[in-house]
Amino acid sequence: MRTRHLCSIGLVWLAATTALLAAATQTIQVTPLTREGKVYVSFKLSDGFTDEVAEAIHSGLTLTFLYDVDLKRSASIWFDRTIASATVSATVKYDTLTRKYSVTRAYDGRIDSADTTDSEEIVRGWLTAFDRLPLFSSAGLEANAEYYLRVRARTSPRTAMLFFWPWVGHDVAGMARFTFIP
Amino acid sequence: MTTVRDFTPRPTLPPRRAAPAAAAPAERRPFRDNPRLILAGIVLLLVSLIAMITLADRSTQLNPDFLSEVVLYALSVADATMLLALAFVLARNVVKLVVERRRGLPFSRFRLKLVAALLGLTIVPSVLVLLVGSELIRKTTERWFSIPVSDVLTSSRAIAGAFYSEREEAVAGQAARIAAGLPSQALTAGDLDALKAAVSAPVTEGRVGMVEIYRLQQGPGAKPDVVAVFALQSPSLPPGHVKASADRLAARVAAGSSDTKAHEPLDSGDELVRAGAVAKDAKGAAVGVVIASDFLSGDLARHARRIAEAYEAYSQLRVLKRPLEGVYLSLFLMMTLLILVSATWLGLYLAKRITRPVHMLAAGAREIGAGHLDHRIEPETRDEFGSLVEAFNAMASELATSQRRLDRSKKDLERKNSELDERRRYIETILERIATGVVSIGPDGRVSTINAAALRLLDIDDAIVGAPADQVFAREALQPLAALVRSVNAGSMKPAGQEIALARDGREIHLAAAATALHGGGAHEGTVIVFDDVTPLVRTQRVAAWRDVARRLAHEIKNPLTPIQLCAERLRRHFTGAPPPVKDLVDECTSTIVGEVESLKALVDEFAQFARMPAPKAVPSNLNTVLNETLSLYNGLFSHIRLDKQFATGLPPVRLDIEQIRRVVINLVDNAIEALGGAQAASTNGEQPCITIETQHDSTNAVARIIVADNGPGVPKADREKLFMPYYSTKRRGSGLGLAIVRRIVAEHGGSIEVGDNVPQGSRFVMELPC
Question: Nearest 10 degrees: CA dihedral of B555, B558, B564, B566?
């Protein structure tokens, strides 16, 4: 009995560790661009469309990829200052009967686009790659100062947990520094 | 073994009264003593348990986002909080109990044991239940996803999907065929008849339910506008379909989207399957869009949807297995923690409920032991502990009453002791002050007390207190007193006065002594000797006797002296003519007789003066002035004798008869001059003859002293008492009345005069006069 308990706990631990390792291999490539008074943000989550995510989507579960984008400025002796923040989300719903994916993309709660496709590859792109999103205004930025963009990604709802602990790392983060030149 | 005593009826607790409005705010009752709060806590606990059960029951129906983002996190936070609370409560109380135990506080060991026992009773089964329950939950959730169910659901979903796909493909094929056969010129020109003719066949033949034709018309933008041309519908197609759905699909198809199929649920429960295709002209340019629609019957669509929903629910359950497990485990953990926290709290609560009254009793006993008899314990309960507390309070009240009685008795006793002390001090003061000597001898024959007068009269030291009386009175001079004590102790003498003469420093002291045996309850308790100095009285009696003698002697002697003197003078005159030898003889004899008669007359005059000494006329006088005036008479008379005057300053006025005191001083100084050799005085031992006249003031005894001292040969001790007796003189021609008159004058002034040795030599007369 005791051995079985230990095995169960070990399996849970192993699963959680695997999830952590999987999260560790995921990266976000962030590319900033300042032009015409805007800060354009392009980012791509690589290896974000894991088997678990695919299984969750194909189960018909409405899955949302949430990206928290922060425009920050480094501080030497204190916490970095957040200049602006935005939330980008991509929600997918798979119709198991018609085998179609419905993807809705929104910025700060405002729906930007809603598309339907039966291609998983396209859905993968819609969910993990965003190109030149005009998220921030560059009006308040200081010329020739260095800033950086940080993007953190996670899925909702969470589908993994470590024993009693739900805060297991599905969060992936990426950042890119840039010097603001008006 | 306990003894059953008479039990008085248990006093009832006083009825609870509302606190007066003006009183200070009541102290806040702790949680453990507030039944309402305890009840509220129990209700809250039950509500929490019910909420947890309800949540667990409905967990699978919850929105996955809500489940994983809210419920799971809330439960985890609640678990962590309870775990921390439990750890804090345990750590705090363990530390507290350990500290109390180290300090040796009462009942700390008992509380520690009680809490440990309750924790041990709950923590082991709780942890076991948690482990087993967790495993059970895990196994149960795993059983949800059995392979047969999964296969059935997957296959059903595949069949339904295939059917849908097939229908889509069929409709899409019809749309493509219609689009291919559509005359582009007619579409461009808007020739509806030609168009209807081209699409009527599939509709009428039932291959599709409806065909809608759109024409692409180049608008202002880059994208062409999609304009509906006409729709041909089979009569069998159920109503309720929405044209906008077809418009959106047409626009999507025209835009070149790969998604050319759509499903539109109808109000009747049926479902419309749409598919679009682009119609092109001969050059291959898109000129229009054909949307072909067919419907699926309601039952078929519903079953397919049900299959899909069941599959999705099953698949989502598998995807959300971990969060669901987490919810169940968290709920289970929460219940376990609730049990543990409740057990811990209950253990502490019970320990306090049990030990607190006993602790209060112990503290109250310590307070009572420390003398705080007004200390009371407030009964907090009406159970046996309450009775015990009330019995303790009653005991404390009785003790306080007894203590107050004792205090009153003690104060009375102290007051009486104080009065006795005062009376004793008063008697002691009187004994110390009186001139009567008092000596008390204990039953053991030792001297218990002796007053100052006795010490002075007997010339002994107060160190004799505690010494045997026989030893104290063993001195030859005190033998009469020893005999007196012995006779009293022997019972041969009743208390009575007896005059005893004691010899001290060559002087005779007359004491009127009385010895009394003390008897208390028949037992001999000692002896008290009381004696007074009656020497002055004796002396006065003697002087009075001598004065009487002197008066008679003067009278009897003086009367024949004049005839004797006249006869002698007659004889001398008669023999004036006698022969020379006879005449010479007669002259010589008669001269002798006349001379001696003159001497006798002078002596008789002196006797007469002694006998007729008048009473002194005392007036307040400055003694130093009187002495100065008196001593001035000696100025220039005896140059070889030094008169040394040492007068005290601040001497109070003394009531005295100046003339009599002058006579006293002259007598004493004359005696001193004579003792020093008179006009022929010479230095002795190399020292100049000196007479010191000194005055002193003794404020304690209220006397002024006149001291006349010389450095002559001094007075032998044996002669000192006789010196003041009449008719005793050490001088060849003295009458022996000088110092007797001096003593009488001093006595008439209420004083005394004594003679002693001068240091280093000579005599010293000390005269004391009251002032």
Answer: -120
